Amino acid sequence: MKTALSIAGSDCSGGAGIQADIKTMSAIGVFGMSVIVSVVAENTSRVISIEDVSPKLIADQIDAVFEDIEVDAVKVGMLSTPACMAAVAEKLRQYRPRHIVIDPVMYAKNGCPLMQESSIGTLIDTVIPLATLLTPNIPEAEKIAGMPIKTVDDMKTAARRIAGLGARAVLIKGGHYIGDAEDILYDGSAFYPYVRRRIDTKNTHGTGCTLSSAIASYLALGESLPGAVERAKEYVTGAIEHALDIGRGCGPTHHFYRFYSQQGGTL
Ligand SMILES: Nc1ncnc2c1ncn2[C@@H]1O[C@H](COP(=O)(O)OP(=O)(O)O)[C@@H](O)[C@H]1O
Ligand SMILES: Cc1ncc(COP(=O)(O)OP(=O)(O)O)c(N)n1
């Protein structure tokens, strides 16, 4: 069985972070593993508090996985501080997994910061050059590229700039855009658009985590990069279409709706 590792934060309410990643990997059919970098007390409406795991324990978790198990792809999510970033980057440089999909998480959908403002320099210098694919949303891409993004042409310019920082490929996600849900992949030489109609729902907690871990899963299964993004886009669109109205805020994406419908369930 192919394997994928999520290095990210824990969302106790189950909609984003490590929890969304493992559900995605399981639904797609790869063996999901996790290195917890931060514990986030959050739900569909708010973030209450965040505590980071020590750099040593982050490094030990990564060693525990890599010394024992072949890792076919890695997804990196929330890294809140320069210390967390340095611990993860050092180990990724040591183990050099083939596919490293990095979601440069900065804010939760409710606006709460998940990355310290002072970490942006370390993100750019230390983390982004490790990415075989970086998957910023529009506000994240604006911060990293240092430019406003208002049009699809701006998305392309920003993707080129971010590739110039060392990411081998960049997928700018259009969830925060207006109109269709259009994402743009730049692989260093060509642009690939991925367009679906925008689904009218408030239940989008965990969309970015779902997409990036789905891409990592399809890469682990041997898809090409454009193919993995196409299949992951299909996956996240279905997961948003069937998103669950759980909680008082933005409900989570749904990973097992096909399974439940086969079982005759109602979820
Ligand atoms: N309402 C929606 N309808 C359809 N697709 C969406 C919707 N919201 C987000 N997406 C898609 O979900 C994926 C994650 O994007 P986005 O929400 O921008 O990420 P993030 O969670 O990091 O902010 C992208 O493929 C985006 O196009
Ligand atoms: C622990 C943790 N990691 C990441 C996020 C952000 O998830 P994302 O899929 O980008 O979007 P929202 O969940 O914020 O809608 C998170 N909330 N928690």
UniProtKB/TrEMBL annotation:
Residues 11-254 form the Pyridoxamine kinase/Phosphomethylpyrimidine kinase domain. InterPro entries: HMP/HMP-P_kinase_dom (IPR004399), PM/HMP-P_kinase-1 (IPR013749), Ribokinase-like (IPR029056). It is an enzyme of class 2 (transferase). GO terms for biological process: thiamine biosynthetic process. Pathway: Cofactor biosynthesis; thiamine diphosphate biosynthesis; 4-amino-2-methyl-5-diphosphomethylpyrimidine from 5-amino-1-(5-phospho-D-ribosyl)imidazole: step 2/3; Cofactor biosynthesis; thiamine diphosphate biosynthesis; 4-amino-2-methyl-5-diphosphomethylpyrimidine from 5-amino-1-(5-phospho-D-ribosyl)imidazole: step 3/3. Pfam families: Phos_pyr_kin (PF08543). CDD domains: HMPP_kinase (cd01169). Belongs to the ThiD family. GO terms for cellular component: cytosol. Keywords: ATP-binding, Kinase, Nucleotide-binding, Thiamine biosynthesis, Transferase. It catalyses: 4-amino-5-hydroxymethyl-2-methylpyrimidine + ATP = 4-amino-2-methyl-5-(phosphooxymethyl)pyrimidine + ADP + H(+); 4-amino-2-methyl-5-(phosphooxymethyl)pyrimidine + ATP = 4-amino-2-methyl-5-(diphosphooxymethyl)pyrimidine + ADP. GO terms for molecular function: ATP binding; hydroxymethylpyrimidine kinase activity; phosphomethylpyrimidine kinase activity. This is Hydroxymethylpyrimidine/phosphomethylpyrimidine kinase. The gene is thiD. Transmembrane segments: none annotated. Its EC number is 2.7.1.49, 2.7.4.7.
